[in-house]
């Protein structure tokens, strides 16, 4: 069967069937396995959410305890991975470091027993456990410090902030970060998840699947936008400058980072929750200097581009939350990757259940029966 209509970016073309998450872009609805994101954010936590996404059901108390225990046990990095990281240039982007580290895990655990549930579970646990450690280790190493070892008495979110900032976060900060991880964990077939699916469909190992997704997430049109948002807010600088800046940007047909979405035509429900989290953090630890600029920019963009369905996406307020948690701006996208690993792994597992290699078609626009011209005659 050949479908001849070409749509740039595969817009509107189903590339898979999935029961993991659902988005209604007109009503601003996001559900993980049928549960509204607002409900999960209010009542759940990240590892429980990861389990739900990957295994399809909320875990029982014993299942969750075992899962958390396994993750805690696998958080440490092999010394060879740490040695490899020492050779990375400090000026390199942390997403590139993370992609290299995720791929390097495949060197140690490359057995591709994709029909063995024990292998699948071990890969899920290792990736969820080690990716935060890799992100934090790169941050400390590029500052010339030794990485901090994970602490078994801390939960997933608290341990990451501890390894990153070399001090234990207070429970409120850890809770806010945990909610951020939940919000970013999954989002149907976005670019990085599609990349993960294509890689998974060749039956390669899960470390290659996650490494390919990390590379895709890094781009400024996808996960990289959260870092760009902060640079943009810094460039705008003041509330008074918002409208002149926007006018100039629109005149140059420039994109406003953190706005617009292929699926959402209203404000992304995750942006609403993140804005609320940002306000909670500011109440306790002081207002971010760029928050008022962000709020004014949201208003101005809505006035100018709301008719095109352009509203804040998940990346718009996340950076302001991360800054308050002491996370440097070039780690915003790696933090996104920590969380999205849960979604990528859920899709990897789902793809394996009914795998067929991705091999789409193309519409050829080149020449036929062209002549080879000898080099001296070109
Ligand atoms: N600022 C200004 N105009 C925009 C924006 C924006 N952020 N987003 C879309 N538009 C305009 C486009 O210029 C285009 O206008 P036109 O029809 O008059 O030419 C129209 O809206 C459609 O935009 P596309 O780029 O074709 O929409 P697409 O669905 O392909 O892209 C995307 C979606 C990539 C997210 C886009 O909105 C964008 O580039 N946003 C900024 C980057 C960003 O925030 N990315 C994060 C997305 S969320 C995530 O991946 C985690």
From TrEMBL:
GO terms for molecular function: citrate synthase activity. Keywords: Acyltransferase, Transferase, Tricarboxylic acid cycle. GO terms for biological process: carbohydrate metabolic process; tricarboxylic acid cycle. GO terms for cellular component: cytosol. InterPro entries: 2-MeCitrate/Citrate_synth_II, Citrate_synth-like_lrg_a-sub, Citrate_synth-like_sm_a-sub, Citrate_synthase, Citrate_synthase_AS, Citrate_synthase_bac-typ, Citrate_synthase_sf. Pathway: Carbohydrate metabolism; tricarboxylic acid cycle. It catalyses: oxaloacetate + acetyl-CoA + H2O = citrate + CoA + H(+). The active site is at 261, 315. Pfam families: Citrate_synt (PF00285). It comes from the Bacteria. The keyword Acyltransferase applies. Belongs to the citrate synthase family. This is Citrate synthase.
């Amino acid at each position: 069967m050949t479908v001849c209509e070409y749509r740039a970016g595969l817009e509107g073309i189903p590339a898979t069937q999935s029961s993991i998450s659902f988005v209604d872009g007109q009503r601003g609805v996001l559900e993980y396995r049928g549960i509204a994101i607002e409900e999960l954010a209010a009542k759940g936590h990240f590892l429980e959410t990861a389990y739900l996404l990957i295994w399809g059901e909320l875990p029982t108390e014993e299942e969750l305890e075992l899962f958390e225990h396994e993750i805690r046990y696998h958080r440490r990095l092999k010394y060879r991975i740490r040695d490899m990281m020492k050779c990375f240039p400090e000026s390199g982007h942390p997403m590139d470091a993370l992609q290299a580290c995720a791929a390097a895990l495949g060197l140690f655990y490359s057995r591709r027993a994709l029909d063995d549930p024990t292998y699948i579970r071990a890969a899920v646990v290792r990736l969820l456990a080690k990716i935060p450690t890799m992100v934090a280790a790169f941050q400390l190493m590029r500052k010339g410090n030794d990485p901090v070892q994970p602490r078994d008495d801390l939960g997933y979110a608290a341990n990451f902030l501890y390894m990153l900032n070399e001090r234990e976060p207070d429970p409120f900060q850890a809770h806010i970060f945990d909610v951020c991880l939940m919000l970013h964990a999954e989002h149907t077939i976005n670019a990085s998840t599609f990349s993960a699916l294509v890689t998974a469909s060749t039956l390669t190992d899960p470390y290659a699947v996650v490494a390919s997704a990390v590379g895709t997430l890094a781009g400024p049109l996808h996960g990289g936008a959260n870092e760009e948002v902060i640079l943009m807010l810094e460039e705008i600088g003041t509330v008074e400058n918002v409208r002149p800046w926007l006018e100039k940007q629109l005149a140059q047909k420039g994109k406003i980072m953190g706005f617009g979405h292929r699926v959402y035509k209203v404000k992304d429900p995750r942006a609403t929750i993140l804005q609320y989290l940002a306000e909670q953090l500011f109440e306790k630890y002081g207002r971010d200097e760029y928050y008022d600029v962000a709020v004014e920019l949201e208003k101005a963009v809505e006035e100018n581009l709301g008719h095109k369905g352009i509203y804040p996406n998940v990346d718009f307020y996340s950076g302001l939350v991360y800054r308050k948690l002491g996370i440097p701006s070039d780690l915003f996208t790696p933090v996104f990757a920590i969380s999205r690993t849960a979604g990528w792994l859920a899709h990897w597992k789902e793809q394996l259940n009914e795998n067929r290699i991705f091999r789409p078609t193309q519409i050829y626009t080149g020449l036929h029966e062209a002549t080879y011209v000898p080099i001296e005659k070109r």
